[in-house]
Write a structure and sequence with these properties.
about 15% strand, single chain, 15 helices, alpha/beta, three-stranded mixed β-sheet, Spore Coat Polysaccharide Biosynthesis Protein SpsA, Chain A
Length: about 400
């Protein structure tokens, strides 16, 4: 009798998991099909062309910075400057920026002063770029991003035509290793359900978000939300800035721009791991109880279907609930596969085959959540861009 009750509870949980993945599939399909896309710049005929200051923070990017800057210096927009900030690099990043600046007057090289202890490096570099800027509109982009020649004109024309306070583009996310390619579709299913353009663009919804690889904001509004100084201790500073824009009731638009902007998401499994910890650990330090609930949810959503399947086959034998449990379990795994394939092909614009490796992605994400949740004494260190940040109980990261 006790076994029947226990299996009944497990069956109910698996029905709930199946319902969750059904919801994910409907939501990502709806979002992908209905989300706005960046259009060719000639669609909008704006009379004026405000000056744009493109701010590029760079730390140890000698292998990426040249391609990024060359794509920015090849934009078909007439009125802009590029401010490249070397954030205390230990490689040839600064010399590459300096050499390129000698060949193009638009490029302004900046050597950032040492970062204060209570600032995250990228925010500090972005703030230095803002102080050197002379444009009416600021474009923040990452040093490992490549832009199509009409990306700036298309985005600025859209922003001006639609009278937006801020605009951010969803880039095409690139991955270098197979583990990251298997993990990203799973992770993006969850991110897409929360940060769908349809939610971010809804003025009645409080969710705001910037993609760090491309976001435009007028200098006036950037100063109104407090600049990067207000998010100087945030490890995910772009998301925090987007949130502040929505809190100020500004008009923010998130637009799919995969055909215009490409960004490297993670360079190897190690950077993938730290990218996940960068997202997860602040959650555990700020809202520990909620974070533990999210961790439990992630475990059941991602791993429980894989654990139940062999258990049902090996131990339930002729139990009457074995059939329904196996059916629900198999349907869930099929839905997980469909979700990751859809997200991989239509959401990330990468090969559908990377959705097939969703089991690897489930394991990586679950392990990262569990390890982050059970680190001893609440003391956690995140490595990002060759720096270590301690995220402690006071909810602030500090450079080690």
């Amino acid at each position: 009798m006790l076994l029947i009750v226990l299996l009944g509870i497990i069956l109910a949980i698996n029905i709930g998991i199946l319902a969750c993945w059904s919801y994910f599939l409907v939501l990502i399909t709806w979002s992908i099909s209905k989300s706005p896309k960046l259009e060719w710049s000639a669609r909008y005929r704006i009379k004026s062309k405000p000056k744009i200051s493109i701010i590029v923070p760079a730390r140890n990017e000698e292998g990426k910075i040249s391609k990024c800057l060359q794509s920015l210096l090849s934009q078909d927009y007439d009125n802009y400057e590029v401010i490249a900030i070397d954030d205390s690099s230990t490689d040839k990043t600064l010399s590459i920026i300096s050499e390129l600046s000698k060949k193009n007057h638009r490029l302004i090289p900046v050597k950032s002063p040492p970062k204060p202890d209570d600032w995250v490096g990228k925010s500090w570099a972005c703030f230095q770029g803002y102080q050197k800027s002379s444009g009416k509109i600021l474009l923040f982009t990452d040093a490992d991003t490549v832009h199509r020649s009409d990306a700036l004109s298309s985005a600025v024309n859209t922003m001006v035509h639609d009278e937006l306070d801020a605009l951010t583009l969803v880039p095409k996310l690139l991955c270098s290793d197979i583990i990251t390619k298997f993990t990203l579709p799973v992770l993006s299913v969850f991110l897409h359900t929360r940060y769908s353009p349809l939610r971010v663009n809804n003025p009645k919804n409080e969710i705001g978000y910037f993609f760090g690889s491309f976001y435009l904001i007028s200098k006036k509004n950037y100063e109104k939300i407090g600049t990067h100084e207000q998010v100087r201790q945030e490890l995910v500073e772009d998301g925090a800035l987007g949130r502040r824009v929505k809190e100020q009731r500004m008009k923010l638009r998130l637009i799919r721009g995969e055909n215009y902007v490409e960004a490297l998401w993670a360079r190897d499994p190690r950077s993938l791991w730290h990218a996940l910890r960068r997202i997860i650990i602040p959650l555990h330090t700020q809202k520990k109880r909620s974070a533990m609930m999210v961790t439990a949810f992630i475990f059941f959503i991602l791993m429980e279907p894989f654990l139940i399947l062999p258990t049902s086959l090996l131990y339930l034998l002729d139990n009457p609930l074995k059939g329904p449990l196996l059916t629900i379990n198999l349907l869930t795994l099929i839905l997980m596969l469909i979700c990751t394939i859809v997200q991989s092909h239509f959401g990330l614009l990468q090969k559908s085959i990377y959705g097939i490796g969703f089991a690897i992605g489930c394991v990586v994400i679950t392990l990262c959540f569990l390890i982050s949740a059970f680190n001893s004494k609440g003391n956690r260190v995140v490595r990002w861009r060759d720096r270590s940040y301690f995220v402690g109980t006071k909810q602030h990261p500090f450079h080690l």
